[in-house]
Specification:
heterodimer; A: mainly alpha; 81% helix; 0% strand; B: mainly alpha; two-stranded antiparallel ribbon; 2 strands; elongated
Chain lengths: 332, 443
């Protein structure tokens, strides 16, 4: 028995870490899109917004951000435990504060809807709670990026990271999230807004997100090694498609915009995730290479997980079918 | 010793873990119990045409979502955050051994969340039978996540054959797996029943008679609590002998907590049967909150016992509560504490450090996990009136004097370093009385 051995080949964990991080960011895109639209509803005429589906997307989006944030957290600990824990311990209580920020963020979002119902439209309380949600999300992003940057050092417990470095990192994420949230707005916007076409805002966000992602791809030192280059190319392609989709979106709001927005969102998030993991391997590679870790595969537990995943996907597909049926019936 | 040490200050590491863990256990077990209770009650309401109960269940489902889908999930992640700071080597061991178990639990959790939202948001928009089916999907997923995590939690008390085979299945399906699963399922159902009484009482759409009807319907889930005594006997029959000894008088606090947990659970179960089901009594909001408060304290007490009976281990017979393995401590006895490279901030170098400085590092690694210097379970008031000889003898015989304490690991020289540091923590008054004084602050 070697309790330090990895229970599966490292490549599998690296892949799962990158893939689940993309899902986590995609859920964040949905949440940002819903909050952004809620802001619109609070600061403009109330009647043109369908508050129920926006609120529902926000609540479900927040839950999904948390739920889909669990697997990357799991796999990063398995692969890079020493660096992750070393960095977290170096930060200490501010790292734990994320638990509080998450609570404040979700319940503020819920209370903003409660204020809406109480006042039958926009209110000072609703605005305040929305601002609290956004503030808590910024604090979460800041703390996560702070921890992540520290964990890229071989001595994370004594590594110092400047605010400018964290800010720069967050700017890159902002580009990716803007693109993803614009894609969500393009896809769900028709349910959220009953009068003014919501796609104008989405088109501007696609351009802004694309520019930020382009800047990130051009200037960051993340692109090293074959995977790093693949990530950079994906990010560049995603950024260009995002800008293109945004320009098209200003004049054409058909299926082309929706497909391009989806494509750019996927490419930017995947490219960012690939670059993130390849840079991590580069940064701590002097001291630690997961590929050199002893492996003691647990094939039957892995099979259990895969079986559960297949059944789970089947159940989720069934649930989505029911939801679509219910929605089409209610539209009728 | 791959990780630096997190010092949580006077609050103490155990308190920090306990606060988040107890909160999470209560919310997560409520989510499991309510997951089973809701579709069961909905099917019953549907069969009987009970519109009062059916209407109540929608509001109960909203309460479930608001409480468990975020607070439950966040505190679950919060436990990872806390144990990652306080016990990184234990966390790393558990994650490496059970990563596929955790990944499977996450699939259950994802299905639980999504089916829960569909169940709530599409309450009146799906055929009743389909809606009840979705409720059961939620119930299976919620209980499935308990099924998985239960094996990982019980592994720490009874790792069983894992100690020799290192097999995932031997560790997960360990000797206390089944009794613990039954205990947690009973507890989950009871929390669901208690929260029916609370939500019914704050539901302004119900009159008193309707509230009583709903509470009586939900009280069926409290009855299994009456089985706590036999199931606990089963649990302890499967536990290590020393663990059973701790709750049977070996550690006073643990015995009291255990007795309270068992007595409170059994009495609530009996009250539910005789008071609520047979005599159809009404439970006011105050009484419901009182019962929930007792259940919360009982759950906390049982979690305290569960954590406590593992001592001096965190993974029985393998990893001590201070994060050091048995093999490590044996090596320290032979080769010295500082023979193993360690991660430590501030450039500590044992060969050039003073005895007190070395003792401080030994203290941080071997003692600080349970004892803050001041604050919770503090070391200073404990040793303040002791002479140096008393500190030395107690530290050397620690595991014999107090069976729930890990043994000291190190050579005589390491012991002297730790004694020097501990002696330096005493107040001036006691140090002056000690003629021999603390060990010289020299290398």
């Amino acid at each position: 028995m070697n309790p330090n051995a990895l229970p599966a080949p490292p490549a599998l964990f690296v892949t799962l870490l990158g893939a689940t991080f993309v899902l986590h960011l995609a859920a964040l895109g949905l949440l940002v899109a819903a909050i952004w639209t809620r802001f619109g509803a609070e600061w403009s005429e109330a009647g043109s917004y369908a508050i129920e589906p926006i609120h529902r997307a926000g609540i479900v989006g927040f839950s999904m951000v948390i739920t889909l944030g669990v697997p990357p957290l799991l796999f990063v600990q398995v692969l890079y435990g020493k660096y992750f824990y070393g960095s977290s311990i170096g930060i200490g209580y501010p790292w734990l504060a994320i638990v509080g920020y998450l609570m404040i963020g979700f319940y503020s979002l819920y209370l903003s809807r409660w204020c809406w119902d109480r006042h039958n439209g926009p209110s000072a309380g609703g605005k305040l709670f929305l601002i609290l949600t956004v503030a808590s999300m910024i604090l979460i992003g800041w703390t996560y990026s702070w921890n992540h940057l520290r964990s890229l050092s071989t001595t994370p417990w004594e590594c110092s990271v400047t605010a400018v470095q964290v800010m720069s990192r967050l700017t890159g994420y902002l580009g990716a999230i803007l693109t993803a949230s614009a894609a969500c707005r393009v896809w769900f916007g028709r349910r959220w807004h009953t009068a003014v076409p919501i796609q104008t805002g989405a088109a501007i966000a696609l351009i802004a997100g694309g520019v930020l992602a382009l800047y990130w791809a051009m200037t960051s030192a993340h692109a090293t090694g074959s995977w790093g280059w693949a990530g950079r190319l994906l990010l560049l392609a995603g950024a260009l498609v995002s800008i293109g989709a945004g320009v098209i979106g200003l004049v054409n709001r058909g299926i082309l915009l929706r497909l391009l927005a989806l494509l750019s969102g996927f490419a930017v998030l995947s490219g960012m995730s690939l670059q993130r993991e390849s840079y991590r391997l580069l940064a701590i590679g002097i001291e630690y290479d997961p590929a050199l870790r002893p492996v003691d595969p647990q094939w039957s537990p892995l099979a259990m997980f895969l079986l559960a995943a297949v059944i789970g996907i089947g159940v989720l597909a069934w649930l989505l079918r029911l939801v679509r049926q219910a929605q089409s019936q209610s539209t009728l | 010793m791959d990780y630096p040490i997190f010092d949580p200050g006077p609050i103490g590491p155990s308190t920090l873990i306990a606060v988040i863990a107890i909160l999470h256990v209560v919310i997560a077990q409520f989510a499991v119990g309510a997951g089973i209770a809701t579709p069961w009650l909905e099917a019953r309401a549907h069969r009987r045409g009970d519109r009062v109960l059916a209407g109540f269940l929608l509001r109960y489902a909203r309460f479930l979502i608001l409480l468990s889908f975020v607070a439950g999930a966040v505190t679950g992640v919060g436990i990872w955050f806390v144990i990652g700071l306080i016990a990184p080597e234990t966390t790393a061991l558990l994650l490496r051994q059970f990563v596929w178990g955790w990944a499977t639990e996450w699939v259950f959790f994802l299905v639980e969340i999504i089916s829960g939202y569909v169940y709530y948001f599409y309450w009146d928009r799906l055929p009743t039978r389909t809606h009840i089916k979705i409720g059961w999907v939620y119930a299976v997923a919620a209980w499935g996540s308990l099924f998985i995590i239960n094996g990982i939690l019980t592994f720490m008390l009874t790792p069983g054959d894992w100690l020799t085979t290192g097999s995932f299945w031997d560790g997960w399906l360990n000797p206390t797996f089944w009794p613990s699963l039954v205990l947690r399922t009973i507890s989950s159902l009871a929390l669901a029943g208690l929260f029916v009484a609370i939500v019914a009482n704050i539901d302004r759409t119900l009159d008193r008679e309707q509230k009583r009807h709903v509470i009586n319907e939900g009280s069926i889930f409290l009855v299994p609590l009456a089985l706590m005594i036999p199931v606990s006997v089963w649990f302890f029959a499967q536990s290590p002998h020393q663990a059973g000894g701790l709750v049977m008088g070996g550690a006073v606090a643990m015995s009291l907590f255990f007795a309270f947990g068992i007595a409170a659970s059994t009495l609530i179960g009996l009250y539910a049967y005789f008071g609520l089901i047979r005599n159809k009594r009404y439970v006011s909001l105050e009484t419901a909150l009182l019962l929930a408060g007792i259940a919360l304290v009982a759950t906390g007490a049982m979690e305290y016992v569960r954590e406590g009976i593992r001592k001096p281990y965190v993974v029985y017979d393998y990893l001590y509560a201070n994060g050091l393995t048995r093999a490590q401590l044996e090596r320290f006895d032979r080769e010295g504490f500082f023979s193993e490279p360690m991660v430590a901030a501030d450039g500590f170098e044992p060969s050039t450090a003073t005895s007190i400085e070395r003792g401080r590092v030994i203290y941080k690694i071997q003692c600080q996990r349970c004892h803050a210097v001041d604050g919770y379970n503090a070391i200073r008031p404990l040793i303040d009136p002791w002479t140096i000889e008393m500190i030395r003898d107690n530290t050397r015989q620690l595991h014999r004097l107090k069976p729930f304490m890990p043994p000291f690991g190190g050579t005589d020289s390491d012991l002297e370093d730790l004694v020097s540091y501990l002696a330096s923590l005493r107040s001036e008054q006691w140090r002056q009385l000690d003629r021999t004084g603390p060990a010289e602050d020299s290398q």
